[in-house]
Design a protein that fits this description.
single chain, 303 residues, alpha/beta, TIM Barrel, 9-stranded parallel sheet, two-stranded antiparallel sheet, 17% strand
Amino acid sequence: MTENKLIIGTAPDSWGVWFADDPKQTPWERFLDEVAESGYKWIELGPYGYLPTDPARLAEELKQRDLKVTAGTVFTAFHRGLDQWETAWEPARKVAELTAAMGGEHIVVIPAMWRDDVTGEAVESGTLGEKAWSDLFTGHNRLGRTLLEDFGLKQQFHSHADSHVGAQQDIETLLGATDPQYLNLCLDTGHAEYCGASSLDLIKNYPDRIGYLHLKQINPDILKKVNEENMTWAAANLAGVMTEPPNGLPDLRAVIEAVEALNRPIFGIVEQDMYPVAFDVPMPIAKRTRNYLLSCGSRTAVS
């Protein structure tokens, strides 16, 4: 990936996959088949264990479909204390090993959410104190350094709805207190919009910290309902807060133009959170979204 362009890929998330094993989810073989049929060349691994974890088998499955891996995904809760390293590292190590074995270069890191997806009850405070912020910074700097030194992988932090890092100020606080050598931003345009952050402002003000993209849109009318009713992230998804481009916000054409202006190669992974979903729904959306995104930029491609 040496040319100056935005490379579009996709992820299990766009096929309604949130968990390693769930009968409500598209079987992994069908996911890979439909990704290839939809015209994509790059994928994320999704939740560890959804795709085969044996490197030789996964490599063969990908080769048969002419697919390549951009990143794996891990989850952390470093704000809960420095001892969280012991909890986070072992699963992160497994993801990193598989990602590196598949030739991926990135690890997307998602922070823990502060309220229960099902009940909506707070499992901890929705705001962080000074020590919690400090522990968060320390944990992510250590994770990024270890991923880079041990596996040659780059940590891309994914701000997330119902987490402590979602709003514009939260994201800027994180970027200001972490080492750019070890942490940059997986700018998820949908989560940013959901939390009131501006993707365009983040690209403009932190151009060197935009390391990776998740491309998605929010339905503003449903988002208004979500905010009025204080819905959880999971409930918001069931309500259809995520919408197929170009029907929502932010304006992905403007985002892609801004990213292309960074003048360096970058991955833009298509995501549309829609767990659970009927198995015949994702592929037509994936095809239409791919075609739309390719029309948005002069240097946007699938390979």
